[in-house]
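debug: dumping io for the single-chain case to check the tokenizer round-trip. Nothing else runs in this session.
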Amino acid sequence: MMGCGGVEAQNYHSMAFVRRGAYKFHRENDEMIIDPLTAMFFAKYCEYAVSHPFRCGDDCIEFRFENELLREARPALRQVEKKRSRPVRTTAAPISSAIQYEIGLLAKKIELGLATGLEIEESALSVLNAVGVIESAVEGSRASHMQGRNKNRARRLVEQSKEILLSDPGRDWSLSEIAQRVDVSPFHLTRLVRKFTGFTLHRFLVQQRLAIALHHILEGADNITALAFDLGFSSHSHFSAAFKKEYGQPPSSIRMRPI
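debug: decoded output
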């Protein structure tokens, strides 16, 4: 496990997406696990630090936005920026599998030198319109003073549970084992995860496995069956069905699709 890096800040607003792996975001007493199904909005001048508790590290793509463009796209941001007592906060929000796929494909095209400047700009604005992370940042600035000790502890338990799953996503985890590790009952943990994420730990784990698979397939993985077993799926057909349900097409068609 790697410790926290130094405190960082930037003089621009940006949105960052994880292509591969995950990292932990730290701000004051707040911690969040940032993974491929999470968009991160970095507010300018907001201080933070990151750590990498997972063996896989992370690979990200970042879109930087001019202030006027961002204010036009998100009027709520403009209103909050006028109130110095409520600065916009760096925060995270979930993204759909469709956006995750779009980001992964765009990042691969950029890597290969096949994406034009126009395509990159339009994709960035399309994602900006689709992701509610800035609204989350605005709400976070309004409600930050209302967060009590119990709510913060509950969030930490959820983040710890996610961290446990991401430490070995191919493993066959049990709810009781995860609950024991974070020192709460399975019932209480299930209720907290539902409340703070809207989904189950099993759903989170499956989505992370599929996100890993998508990255490997875009990178040219040729043994889909071995990949499926490594990620904890019971069979090639089980993996293909889950992948198609998540991304709208089977893994073989993405692997064969020309960039």
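debug: round-trip ok. The CA atoms of residues 9 and 47 lie 5 Å apart.
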